[in-house]
């Protein structure tokens, strides 16, 4: 059985990191002055960059998506591409950005994303899309507070489309403690929290602080299990709370935070029966697809079709949309299972 045929959910996809080569071509044709070459914004098969270089790539991509119409185009293309890959439920995340050169404000940015989601729905794409507003930790506390306010406004006005807040950005920049206050505020307002943590080694103190917020999901958590023995409490805490981990194999390999497929921390958490969700992170930058991530994990860790199916089904438990949506998705999956596993 080919896992490609399973319906899947994508819960960790950064919008600007998810732009395909085809969409980039369209955008670059509109901005020839930027003189950006493909290898500056995507990491091809067999190639790697360190995390710092990956973050430089995002800065280049941001120059290409500087207008609301760019954000609208990439949102629509990214949604269609995920739908074509078999994704039935998608949580996109993105950092609202203001651009002096074009007059785009953070509010206009979010409105463009929401418009893209709405248009795809009107066009009849078979995919349920939600949005997480991202806080970029490299931009500091004041910007984070502003972003949380914006996220709260949209949480109230979008009838379930805006569901949560993501803490991301270069993990070398700033410290988690600078974001505790706005993150707590977001949580109190009813936004679900997806926090990138332990993405790089020796961040135990920061991780402990962020785990203190009881996040709803963890992004990567690459070095959680590799903590010094004095910090084994972190793994225990995550296990006790059964906090799901969003795992992105290709991203971690190409970004050089994990040395080989077999050493990926999926191999630590999955055998413990801990909830994990496979995701792409940045399908454009890392040149991957969600179906491919499932295949890679299945091959590397020798999962049977039944196990892959169970992994896909379990992801529904960890989405941020309402329990009504979860029930609907489970029903959809149940209807598909008999034919797919025959
Ligand atoms: P955007 O938020 O502009 O739609 O997507 C790109 C941004 O997502 C990056 O600038 C960065 O803040 C965040 N991002 C993408 N991939 C990663 C990742 O692997 N780790 C972290 N910490 N942040 C990421």
UniProtKB/TrEMBL annotation:
GO terms for molecular function: adenosine deaminase activity; metal ion binding. Keywords: Hydrolase, Metal-binding, Nucleotide metabolism, Zinc. Residues 7-332 form the Adenosine deaminase domain. Pfam families: A_deaminase. The keyword Zinc applies. Its cofactor is Zn(2+). It catalyses: N(6)-methyl-AMP + H2O + H(+) = IMP + methylamine. It comes from the Eukaryota. One of its GO terms (biological process) is nucleotide metabolic process. Belongs to the metallo-dependent hydrolases superfamily. Adenosine and AMP deaminases family. Monomer. PANTHER family: ADENOSINE DEAMINASE, ADENOSINE DEAMINASE-LIKE PROTEIN. This is Adenosine deaminase-like protein. The lineage of its organism: Eukaryota, Metazoa, Chordata, Craniata, Vertebrata. The gene is ADAL.
């Amino acid at each position: 059985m080919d896992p490609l045929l399973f319906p899947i959910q994508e819960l960790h996809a950064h919008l600007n990191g998810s732009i395909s080569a085809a969409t980039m071509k369209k955008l670059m044709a509109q901005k020839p002055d930027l003189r950006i070459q493909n290898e500056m914004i995507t990491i091809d098969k067999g190639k790697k960059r360190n995390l710092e270089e990956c973050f430089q790539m995002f800065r280049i991509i941001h120059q290409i998506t500087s207008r609301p119409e760019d954000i609208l185009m990439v949102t629509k293309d990214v949604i269609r591409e995920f739908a074509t890959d078999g994704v039935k439920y998608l949580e996109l995340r993105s950092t609202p950005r203001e651009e002096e050169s074009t007059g785009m404000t953070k509010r206009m940015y979010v409105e463009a994303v929401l418009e893209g989601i709405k248009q795809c729905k009107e066009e009849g794409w078979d995919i349920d899309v939600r949005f997480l507003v991202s806080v970029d930790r490299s931009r500091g506390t004041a910007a984070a507070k502003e972003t949380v306010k914006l996220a709260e406004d949209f949480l109230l006005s979008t009838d379930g489309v805006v569901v949560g807040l993501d803490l991301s950005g270069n993990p070398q920049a700033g410290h988690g403690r600078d974001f505790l206050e706005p993150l707590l505020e977001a949580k109190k307002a009813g936004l679900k929290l997806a926090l990138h943590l332990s993405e790089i080694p020796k961040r135990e103190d920061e991780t402990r602080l962020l785990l203190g917020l009881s996040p709803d999901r963890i992004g990567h958590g690459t070095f959680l299990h590799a903590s010094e023995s004095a910090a084994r409490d972190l793994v225990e805490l995550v296990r006790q709370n059964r906090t799901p981990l969003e795992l992105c194999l290709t991203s971690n390999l190409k970004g050089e935070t994990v040395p080989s497929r077999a050493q990926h921390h999926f191999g630590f958490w999955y055998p413990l029966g801990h909830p994990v969700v496979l995701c792409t992170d940045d399908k454009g930058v890392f040149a991957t697809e969600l179906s491919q991530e499932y295949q890679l994990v299945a091959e590397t860790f020798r999962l049977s079709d039944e196990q892959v199916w169970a992994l896909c089904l379990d992801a529904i438990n960890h989405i941020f949309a309402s329990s009504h949506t979860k029930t609907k998705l489970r029903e959809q999956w149940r209807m598909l299972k008999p034919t797919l596993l025959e």
